Structure formats: C-alpha cells, structure tokens
C-alpha cells in the first residue's frame, strides 16, 4: 500500500474518497491529526497513543480527559511544516492506535503494568510511539515498555523535576516518574536534561535527587539567561546524539499559554520558545515522545489542547524525520 | 457476525478485546455513542451521521461544530434505557458512518445536493439514519434523500416553524426547510406537527404558511396548556401511525437547558418534557430523525452537547425498536 | 413623520435605507432593540433608558454593565409578539434615549438626584420610560421623577422585598428602594405586590416592613401554590386597574435562568412563568417599567442579558399597548 | 459561652467585634457559612466537614475541589430561613471543623479508613456532622463512622442508585457506597428510599440490587407522577420517624441547575423541588447529612457550588431543629 | 463646526452636554471608540466601519460578530496616545458610519459587490476608512473600492499569506484576498510585505504564490531573528513611502493574546511587538486599514476584542496623523 | 513557641497534627498561603491582610472579591523559593489576620478612615503588612497608617500613574492614591518610581503630576528598552536603600497574564519580567507591600488570582528576608 493510499478514506455511504487530514477541519470524528485507525500494526510506522489516566496527580485532576481534547484540537493541525517544509505523512505511515485500556484504574501499580504491556507490544513491533497523557506518572511505564538494552537519554521539559519520592502513600504518582526511571535504569541521568524547572517546593528533595544523580537541570532563570540557542547546545551535549526520549509536560509553559493543567507555575516557557526548542532537536535519534498533563477541565479557552496538539505535531515531525532507524519500511 | 461481535473492538497493540461503549467514558476517540465505524453498510442497520454545515444560518453560526461535540458528549451515554429497559445495541447494528463530505461549502444548493446524495445512498441500502446537525437547512435535503413513494409525516420540535421564504437572497437557509419540503411534496403538511413555537418575528409569514398548509402548530403557550400528554395525543392523531420523520431543533428547549444554539428563544420546553415527548413516540414507524442547531461556540457549559447526545440516544431507542420494518436483519 | 419613517435608517455612505431592527441581528451598533437614537423627545412616545449604576449594591457589583449588555442582547429580539401578534413599533415611536449621565458616581444621594432629574424631564415631556439597570437602588429616584399627583401602584418581581433600612451607613442602597418610595409617598403600599420573595435573611426587618405597611407579599412558596394564574388574580386585585409601575429584578428568576446577577437565590421563578406573568399585566395603565440587576460579569453564558432583553420586550409591548393614555400622538 | 458569643469574632488588629456571617458576604476567608473554626469539639453541636476526595470516581474527577468551592459559595447564605423563620445559629453552636486529612490518597481502602476515623470521633463526641464531598464513595465510611446500634434509615437523592458492584478492580468506588453500607448492615434497605434515579446504564445490576434488597426506588418518571408531596409521603412511610441519614448527590438535579458534577444526567430534579423535598423532611430524627459530587472544574457558572451551599443550609436547618436528641446542650 | 463640537453630545432628555468618549467607559450604547454616528459624510474625515461577514471562512465561523464586540471593547480606549501624546480626535472628525448592509449573505460574490459599493462611495467622498471585520475575505472588495490609479502597497500582518486559490468551490474565501487583489492589480506585490506567517499547510501553494509574485514574506522565525526594528526596516524599504493599506489579521498574534479567532496558530506575535510594529508605521501615507478575524464566540476572556480595539486605536492614530493628504479640512 | 509549632494545626476531631501549607493543596478552608489565623498579633511578624473594597473604581468593579480568590489560589503556593532556596516560614511567623472590616462602604472617606485604623494598629505592633486588594484606592490609607517619621520610597508597578485628580466628584478614587500620598507627605516623590505605565488617557494630568513632582516614571516603552536589569538599576538608584513600600497593580501585567482586572491595558509586563523585578528588590528595607486590582469576575481562567498569589509569595519572601528590622523576634 502506498503512503497515499494509507491516508485515504472511502466513505462507506457514497464511496467518495477523501484524505481526512486535508478536508475541512471541523469535519469527522476526531482521531489524532485525523490519522487513520488501522487494523494492524503491520501497516504502521508511528503510533499515536492516548493514555487517559490521571490517578497519579497530587493536586488537580483532569488529565484523563487530555487525549480526547488533544485529538479534538489536533484537527486544527495540517501537514507540511512551515519552517522545514517537511511533511511527515509523506514518508511515514502514522496511525491513531487508540488509548491504553485499563482493567484496573484505582491501583497505580496495576495501571503502570497495563501501560507497560501496551508500550512493550509497540516496541516488539518496532513502532515508534507518540503519546498524549494523562498525568506524568504514565511516562515511567512507557519508558519501561520501550527499554531495550541500555538506558535512554531524556529531554524533559517541565516546571518540575518529577524526581520526588513517596507522596501520600505511593511512589507511582506524577511527581516521581524520572526518579523511578533512574532507579530502574531506564534512563541515564547523565544523559538527562530537565528544562524549565521552577516554582516553590515544600522540600528540596526532588531538585537534590536530580542534581545528585548527575542530571542537567536548567531552572527557568538559567533558561532565560542561556536563551533557546544556549539550551539547545546543552541538550546536544547531554544527549550526545544517542537514543533519547522526549517528555513534554505542558506545565513547563507559562499558564498564559497552557492554563489547562494540574499544577501551573507562573513564569514559564513561551510557546515560541517551546517550538524553537523542539525544532532544535531535529536529527536526534528519538525512541518516542509524549505530551502530558493537558487537563481540559481547567482549559476554559481551549488553548492548552491546541498547544498540546501543536507540540505533538512538532514531535511527530521529529520522529518521522529522524526517529530511531529500526522502523520497518 | 453476532451483534455482540459487532460492538467488540480488538486493540491492535495488545490484542485485548473491549466493547468501547461499555468502557471508561473518557477513553478513546469519540464516535457517536462510541459505536464502531464500519467498512461497509452491509453490516449496519442504523447509521449515525454528522452533517457539519451551518452556512444556512440567518444569525449566529457555529452548528458546523455540532457533530463533533455531540460525538464527544455522547460518550456520556450508556446502553440500557432506564425507563423501558430496552438496549438498542442488543438488537440493531448501529454504526457511526462519519460526516457528509462537502466539495463545495459556499453554495447552499450544491451543499443540499451533496447531502441529498448521501441520504439517498443510505435509503438505497435500507439503513435508517439518525443525524446530528448542522443547522436546520440540512433537513430538507435529508428528507429529499429519504423520500420513497409518498410524503412523510413530520414531528417537528422547534421554536420556529422554519417555513419562511427567501432570506437575504436564498430560499435554502435554516428558516425554510419545511416550506421547501412541503412545496416539494416530501412531507405531508396535514401529517406535520410543529411543537414549541415561540419568539417574536418580523413578519408572520412562516406562521401563516404553516397554518395555511394545514400543519398542526403548537405554540409554546398551547404546549403548556395541553401538557406533554395532550401534545402526545395530538402527535398521535396527526401522524396517524404512518411513516414519519422526527426533527428536533435544540432551540425548542429553553436556553437554560440549551444555550449553545444560534437563535435561542427564552421560555422554551424543558428537557424533562422533551424526554417525555420522545418516549411518547414509541411505536411510531419512523424513517429517520435528526437533532440540529447545537452550536458549540455558544455552549460554554457544554450542556447543549450533552442534551443533544441524550436526545439522540432517545431517538436511537425509537429507531431501533420501531423504525420502519424494511431493515435487513 | 410616519411610524414607518421613524424606524427607517439611511446609510450615510451608500444612501441605502434599512429598518435596523428588521436586518441581520448581528449587524450594527447596539441600541435597545436596534431602535433609533433621536434628536428630540418630541418625536418619541416611549423612551428606552439605561441607568448604568451599581454603587448601591451590598454584595457583588457589576450591574453598571447591564444596560450595554442588554442592548447587545436585545438585537436578538424581533417585532411581532408571537402570542398577541401585536407589534409595538407599528403604533409607538420608541427610541433609545441613551443612559443617564452621572457627574458624581461615588455619592449615592447625588446619583439619585441625577436619576431623578432625568426621569422628571421625561415625565414633563409625557414620554413613558422603560429602563435597564443598574442595581435596584435606581428605582427609587425613577419613581420620584415620574411621580405626579398620587402614589403609584407597584408590581414588584424580585427575590427580595427591598424594603430594608440603613446598610453599612446608607439608606440609598439596592435593598431599600421600596421602603424609601413608601416613606416618600411615591408608591401606595396597599397597591403594592411583591412576587417571588425568598432566600434567608439576617434580620426579618424588610419582610416585616412590607407586611406592616400592607404590601401584598407573595413568597416563592405561595407563588408555587397559587400558580401564575392565581398570582395574576392577586395582582389585578391589588393594582385595581389604576396607574402602576412594574419593577423586575432578574434575581426573581432562578439562577439557572439568570446567573448574571449580584444576589442570586436558588429556587426562583422560571422564565416561562415570568413571561406569563408579564403577559397577564396586559391592559394595566402602566406609567413605566424597569428591568434591573443584570450583572454581566457573572453572566458567563450570556443568558441573563438575553432574558433581560426578552423581559424588556414584553414590557415594551405592555407599555405600547396600554401605557397610561397621556401620550402625545 | 452564649450562642451569641460563639459566633462573634474579634479582629486581632483593631479589636472590633463582628459576626462574620452577618457581615458583607465578600469579606473574609471562607469557612462553611462563615462559621467559626473552633479549638475543641466541646463547644460544638454540629460539625461542618469537608471531605476533599474524588479518587473513587468512574468518570470525570474534580469533586475533591468541592468543599473549598462550597465554602466559598456558602458566604452567599444568610441566617433566618424565609419559610420557617427558623435560625439555626440561634439554637446550635455550629462550627467548621475543617477537612478530613488523608495520609494516603491513592488507596481507596486506606482513604475509607481515614474517613471512618474522623466520623467515628465525631460520633463519640455526640456532634452531628453535615458534610460536603468529595465523590459519593465517602458516604460509606461516613455511615460506618456514625453507626451505633442499628442500621440507619436513608434518604438518598441521586440520579444513580450507587448500589453497583466492583468497577475496574475496586468495590470502593463512587457507584457503590449503598451496596457496601447495606452489606455491612449500616443502613436498613427497607428503610432506604432512593429518589431521582435515571439515566441509561450498561447493566441493570445496581437497579436490581436496590430492588432485591427492598429499597424504595423512585425513578425520575415516578417522581414526576407523584410530585414532591407524594414523594414526601413515601419518605415518611419508609423512614418511619426513626434515625436516618440524608445523602444528596447533586447529580440528582438537572444539569441546568448543577452542571458541575462528574456524571450529569439530563432530565433531573429542579432546585425548587429539591428545596421542597428537604423542607418536607422537617422533624425527622436525622443523624447526619451530606452533599456530594460538586465538581467545580465543570461548574463554569458557579451555580453548582451555590446550589450545594443552599442545600447544605437547608440540611443545617433540619439538623439544628430536629437532629437526633443526644446533643450536649 | 469645530472639532470640539463634533464630539459633543447633548442629552435629549436633560439637555446636558457630554463628550461620550471622555465619560464613564461603561456608559452608553457602543459605537467605535464612542465616536458620533453622523448624518452625512460631509462632516467626517475618517470613517469607522464594521463589516459583519464571515461567510468566507474555511474553518471556524464567528467573525460576523466581530464589529459589535470590538465596538463594545473600544469603549475601553481613550484619546491621548501615551507614547506620542497625539490625540486623533483633536485634528480629525472621526465617525462611526455603521456596518456595511448586505442584501445577500449567502453568495460570496454578491457580498463582495456590496462591500465594494460601500468603500467606493467612501473613496468618492475622500473619507479614509478604518474597518473591523468580519473574516479576511472582506479586504479584497475593500481594496477594490478604494482603488484609484495605481496599486497600493500593503502591510499585511497575519499568520497566513491569504494568497491561496479556490477552496471548496470558491475563490472568494478568507484565504484568498491578496491573491485576488494581486491578480486584479489592486495591490503591488513588490510593495507588499506579509508578516508573521506560520503554521503548517496542506499545500505550499499560497506561500509559493506570494514568493513568485515578489511579495516580501516574513515568516515568524525570521520575525524573531530580525526583531521589530528589523521588520520595520523591511516595511519601510518595501512600502517606499508611497500609498499603502494596512491589514491586520488578529491570528498573526499568538492565541494567548487573541484566542478569539477562527484559525489560531500557536507561536505568534505578541501584542507588545504588534503595537511597536504599528507605531513604526507612523508617517506612511496610508489609504485605509482594517483589523479582521476577531471571532467573539471563541473569545471567552474577551481579550481578543480588547486587543482588536487597541490595534484599531493605533491605526486610527496613524490614519489621523499621516493618512493620505486628500482629506477635506 | 517555635516557628515549627506556629504553623502546625491540630485537627479538633482526630487530634492529628498537620502543617496545612504542606498538605494537599485542595484541602481545607483557604487562608492566604494556608497560614494560620492567630489569636493575637503578639505571635505574628508579618500580617497577610485582605482589603475587600472596590468602591473607588472608575470603570469595572469586582476587586472586592480579590482577597477571597487570591486566598483560594494561594493554596497553590509552596514554601521554599526555587531561586533563592529561602523559606519565609522558617524564619518568620506569618499569619492571615483577616480582612479589614467596614462599617461604612458607600463613603470613600469613611472607608479610607477604617483602612487607616487597621494599618495604624498593625504599625503600632510592629507587624509588617502584605495586603491583597481591593482597588488601588486602598493604598493611600494603608500608607497613611504605616507612616512614621518620614516619607517612604515607593516602588509602584502599574499601567497607570494613579496620580490623577478629582474624578466624578471624589479625589479618593483608584486613580489617585499616589497623588494623595504625595500631597500628604506620605511618600517622597523623588524616591518614587512608577513602572509599566501605558495606555491612552483623556488628559495628561496624571502623567504630568508625576513628572512635575519628580517621580521616576518608566513608561512601557522605556521598560522594554532598559530591560529588567536596567529597570532594577533605576529602582536601586531611586529608592536609595531606604525604607520603601511596594505596590503592585496587576494591570501592570499584560492582560494575557492578568485578564481579571478593571482597567486592562494591552501591551504590558510579562509575569517573567514581574518575577525578575520583584526578586531584584531583594535586600531593600521594605515597610510593606500590596497586590491590588485582582477582579475575579473578569478572570474567567483564574490565572489572575494565581498570578496575584504568586506575586504575593515573592513579596512575602522579600518582607521576610529583608523587611525593616524592627520586628519583634
């Protein structure tokens, strides 16, 4: 099947053929970027996944509704990138593979196990995942599922280091995924860079864990000093052009851009900076990426979902252009 | 394929099987009621259709976004009706067949033609349509597409008779479908009942057309006097147990229930009355139904989409239980 | 000048003539009901007035923005009443005469004086006023301005009796206008009826004042028992077909219909009941009317402004059809 | 200490004394009804409690924010009931005792245990609790904490029977409290009445459990037939003037009144009916009450919090006037 | 008549004189900047025009409501510019001349014709227009109406080049005005500069058209590199101090500043940059200007209308200070 | 009592001890930063005060609701500053001392007197105040209450100089506090710096007053040129390391960050700049600070309250670390 055929949809009523992502943006049921939902992973290079879980939050819930609203907003996206003129759909078969299904939603460990199963299956099929959360607790089992032989590098854009310990009785909450991932050897802390950190904390524990493990932590103030270009140099140095994962928590952004999130912190990254950052990752051998913590109930203007979809489009271009080269083609 | 199989979905990643409409309501891409999108009309008894067009409005646009938001809200619906204990999914194969595709969106006649084609194709396959608008101008071509041998009866619930003439240069606007349908012989005005009419008008033209043609027009004040039971008696008398179509404009409802619509009129029907009305149609030989004029940009609380989805669920039960009996089984 | 000419507007650019209130509702600068703003009171039978003042509130301010948002919403209104088929614009020259101007806004007595001056001038010209508040404190100086020879009857629809005494240092606040008006002999308490009263109070003072003075107070619970028909009988009995004023505080309505108000009280009148109530006043010799306490900052759905405009339209029909017969014609 | 002193607050800066609940409603930090937060239960007859937990929801979370927003809205409440002229603060010492503290928030059983501890402690001090949820899962441990010698009667106002079984791995979710309470002997199903039930379900399990156990289940349709007076007769018969608990889930109300809730069902009880219902319980020997499922993130107009506070005020009057007579006085 | 008299308004009731734009900002019916609506173009130098049409959109409609909401927000504007200390009202007679009237709203060509007529009439009277859209399709007929002897220069600030071809059956949609204007010789592409372009596209057609015709296209990324000062240098070079038109599509702005628009693109111009840009145009011989694509239904915070009004105020200063010198004085 | 004990709270029901500001952020009644409300000023170093008054506005009211919503949002704040690692609660006893009580709310002078009394009492106890407005008119009486022997320096961040004269009959409105304070000798204009000034005005009076008195006025355009570092140098020079007060009007911020305010002006300071500005004040001998003009009714996203709380947290760090050294310890 040609790439062109992959994206064509035939109306079962009229027999007319359209490419949904090229049609009127208000039309049709929302899949991610109006990509097809396919019958099998065989025909798919990159999987768009929703992980509708927010049971790991420490404060305001709502991110379980993230995948659906990002899907909805993603119909505002189009195909050819205006800077690179690259069209991911011209070279990759990209499908919406649906959401992770949970048989147990009240038990954080069981949830993590089901997420792990899903991503492990994707890895076994050599399909690169681009995910929409869900709260940040989902990233630990995603990394676990994708793990192969050695720890990944990590580009982590967030207001919080998410390397905290046990909170209110569990270590699987959304402030802990990168401590869990480090402790489990899934990511290499020396090839981990955390960008946009800010906001008061009640203990310095997470900040200290990151530093103690050797992560490169760029607080917001250093971010402003370095500028995006400087930060990109640091990313390049830290990641060292080896396999890496990108995790983008929308609370890295200032709440004027992304109010719809559980733990907003005033004074964050602008979307212009965020887009520049992601574009600056071009060429890195990425193994997957996610956008998390879009919480639609707090997104009265809908802008957070739109921003989330835009970030996913940028990540999709990265994964399509330079994702790790073990894709079936 | 059994009915049960019809609704099952197998995850292409994990191979796990779920029935989406029975799973967590915040999960998955939104189809109408989380019904399957099928490959062919062969396997389908009732088609859920979106008609994302609002180019026929005379005032506030936005109903083009109706199908998507009703789909979204329809994930709040479940299967077994709490009054009748009837489960439409246990007896009918109900599919989301997507939205009508438009190749021309700026020409009201061309749009009407494309809608006609779609519904004509459904009729040729003996599939009953339940549609989400879109503005009310869509109902004229729908009726035209469904027409067989004789005019349908019509149960029309609305604040406006929608039997007006030319407006600002066109007769295909959303205030005119039932004048067009009457003039074209698609509906029988003597088997037409219009319910909930109210709100000042700049001319009496539409009101007079309806009466002159012999439609039974129940203004809101008479509605309150008759009560739902009295109105149902009138419907029964007018429709006469012969094939009929149901068209529900959400502006029939008071704007406290359905603010998200283009031409709200204060003092309308309550949702409790609306649900009673629809349940009272049980047993009528319906040929199709629609819910129109849900305009999400004016629906800040989201309640209009929820109400729209609930009305569609009630109509789905009616169509499943007693829709015209030429379905393939 | 004929009535028809009165409402015509000639475009100064193209010379084309339109009747604004018959044109597209989203077009043009908003006057009340898209009525003309005239050069002189000579050509005017009924004056639509805004009183943008909320300095008299005891709780949530915002009603100063009421006139503008009611004007905006009033473009949704049309001309011919659907029940009576009466068109006020066919018999009366109705103009938007603008807002009361305040030279002092921080001094409640000075404000009252400026409102008085405005309405006194209207009375001297035999023009009937229909006003949009502002908070309820405006009604006392309005009544004072309109007063002629004997106290008016009063139909007062509200959640509160507004017959309270001094609050936080002033007696001119929005909980007091009808005590002031009674004490000043502007209204006859025995020809006063208060409808829709409810909500806990910190003292019984206002309730007791109303009863002690002989006002007919219909609490919400009695309202539900009597029904609208019963309440109308009481109004008829109390007002006795002699000159009366109608004051409608939107907090009489349940906040599901009118959330945009300063002191909402759960469990109020429905808009259907309100419209029936106002229509039931047909034939009363009214000297003026107002709709007050629309507070747009609390009206996220915009429905309160729409309801306010609809109530004003009903009152306009009443004033046009049976307002006191000293109009110049 | 006299009741009057109980409610007085002395400003620590100026020494001025005020009664917060009598002062400007926009002033001060929000406690429930602006009641005092006291140092000891000794001085307290009725405890206002927040239970900020929503980990038991099956669909949309957010009710953890309910207690805070109900507190905020409760400053709109006043003291003397407009129907009964009863002032609960004149006879009872009513205090805001804060929220239940959770050391574990991700484990439903641990949460239930901490809620139990709190209410058990209240019971040991003979303090009657009036609670604001939180999702409905909180009511099972509340009932367990309050239990003394024999099962309570239950007046349960809700769209759902909440007698469902295990969901996604746990039986402690918000659709199950009354099955758990029945199975544990905390409530007597034959003295339980469930009012307002409606909305499609995916299985009939919960409905059937309620009926099988002998609960009196009044579906919405029977509610409309009986009217409030008829329902009150049923309540009276079922409860039999013996100790009972009242649990009010705001989704019993139509979403036009209470949009801010996790599982809205169109076609519900009006606030007028709800107020009449609660007032009709006057005289019952109540052991406590709660208002649950106010989910502020879905309450864009704020009306749900206002309604929640108003329902709590009505329940406070009931508890103050006729709560079980083992209060210390 | 002196300029001072031009802006004075005499209350027809009290005879008091005010200058509306100097009075309380919440007072009075909203005209643009509270300017007078005049009887004739004779007394007018600059015309403020609304063009309430959005039938040309390809995605989300709503801009037909733009003129009214910009009028509303424009009452927040005042007179003396804080940077230049220039007061446009001290030197020009500026009037709100109302909205373009449409006799046909469903036919894009007919609409364009009526817009053309309006602006042609303004040109014949030597009145400079400052317009509020409406969608961007209005600018083509505006330019056509204003055209005299040679093509205008164009400063076009937008996320999209709007030089696309036929879409869904028409070439008169809102993505095409500058292709139409170029093809018709109304603008000189070599004196056209497009600023702020960004966002993926489904074809490169529009971008390529602009470049092929010789327009100076500043994509967002170049904008950030050049900075506002650099962009202004480019504008100066391209426009060459000859007659030019300014068209500002609010989607040029980042949606955090202007969410209320039909096709938002993340990562846009800030309002600070926009104000600097416009101020940098001081001295250019402008023939008119517009602000388009303010779509109030998507503007939940109201900020887009406020920004739109502010941009119009800046443009008004430009037109008043250095608009083309054929004004009647 | 140790600092640690100061912040501990013992549950009166369970006896469990928590530190509210370290507990779940959605829990408990909202005080500022979840600080204790204390019995006496003896145990308090810094007082958090609400001044719920907006009777001094010239345009949109609503700031009376500011203190409550800032309290609500302040529960999102935590303890250890992420830049300085300073924890104000580790060195100061910080208490919420409630709101100023008003016995008269309609008389601006009487209000000012009551505010004066409150702050004078705080000064007499050597307690540093950090206040949440209310409109800006409150700052004049605050300064009057805090005054000791010589005029304070003033760091004033605002879109407006607030040095205007009489408006609509009063000089005590929110556009005048710093003219009143200068005229009364409470602040030293030569040690006053006004930052962020912008927006058209109807007279130049206020701008001219500030300059004539020798204040350092940094209009927004100079702000952009100097950058934060340059502005901080100016602040340092002007304040001269002597006692100063900080007054932050949230309308200094761009309305994309702070829409919820009465007189927004497009093109303002970003929150990143604002945080840098405040952090740059570290070490100044501050005598108090306020954040004013948060108007929740216009804050549909809630971001303004969040920003207000964040600014207060920064000011709290400043006051705790380097407030004037006459605190009792």
Automatic annotation (TrEMBL), chains A, B, C, D, E, F:
Mn(2+) binds at residues 136, 158, 160, 162, 249, 251. GO terms for biological process: putrescine biosynthetic process from arginine, via agmatine. Keywords: Hydrolase, Manganese, Metal-binding. Its cofactor is Mn(2+). GO terms for molecular function: agmatinase activity; guanidinopropionase activity; metal ion binding. CDD domains: Agmatinase_PAH. Binds 2 manganese ions per subunit. It is an enzyme of class 3 (hydrolase). The keyword Metal-binding applies. InterPro entries: Agmatinase-rel, Ureohydrolase, Ureohydrolase_dom_sf, Ureohydrolase_Mn_BS. It comes from the Bacteria. Its EC number is 3.5.3.17. NCBIfam families: agmatinase. Belongs to the arginase family. Agmatinase subfamily. This is Guanidinopropionase. It comes from Natronocella acetinitrilica.
């Amino acid at each position: 099947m040609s790439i062109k055929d992959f994206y064509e949809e035939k109306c079962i009523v009229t027999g007319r053929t359209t490419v949904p992502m090229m049609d009127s943006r208000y039309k049709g049921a929302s899949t991610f970027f109006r990509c097809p939902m396919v019958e099998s992973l065989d025909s798919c290079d990159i999987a768009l996944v929703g992980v509708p879980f927010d049971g790991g939050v420490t404060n305001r819930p709502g991110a379980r509704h993230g995948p659906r609203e990002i899907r909805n907003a993603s119909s505002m996206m189009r195909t050819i990138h205006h800077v690179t003129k690259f069209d991911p759909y011209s070279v990759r078969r990209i499908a919406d593979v649906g959401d992770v299904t949970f048989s147990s939603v009240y038990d954080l460990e069981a949830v993590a196990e089901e997420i792990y199963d899903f991503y492990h299956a994707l890895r076994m099929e050599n399909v690169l995942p681009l995910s929409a959360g869900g709260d940040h607790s989902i990233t630990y089992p995603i990394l676990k599922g994708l793990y192969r032989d050695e720890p990944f590098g990590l580009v982590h854009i967030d207001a919080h280091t998410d390397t905290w310990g046990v909170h209110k009785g569990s270590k699987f909450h959304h402030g802990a995924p990168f401590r869990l991932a480090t402790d489990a050897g899934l990511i290499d802390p020396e090839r981990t860079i955390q960008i946009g950190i800010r906001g008061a904390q009640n203990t310095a524990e997470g900040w200290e864990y990151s530093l103690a493990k050797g992560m490169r932590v760029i607080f917001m103030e250093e971010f402003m000093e370095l500028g995006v270009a400087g930060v990109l140099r640091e990313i390049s140095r830290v990641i060292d052009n080896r396999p890496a994962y990108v995790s983008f928590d929308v609370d890295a952004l200032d709440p004027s851009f992304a109010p719809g999130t559980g733990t907003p912190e005033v004074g964050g990254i602008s979307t212009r900076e965020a887009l520049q950052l992601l574009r600056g990752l071009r060429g890195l051998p990425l193994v997957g990426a996610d956008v998390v913590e879009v919480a639609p109930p707090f997104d009265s203007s809908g802008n957070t979902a739109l921003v989330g979809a835009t970030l996913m489009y940028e990540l999709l271009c990265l994964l399509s252009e330079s994702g790790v080269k073990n894709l079936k083609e």
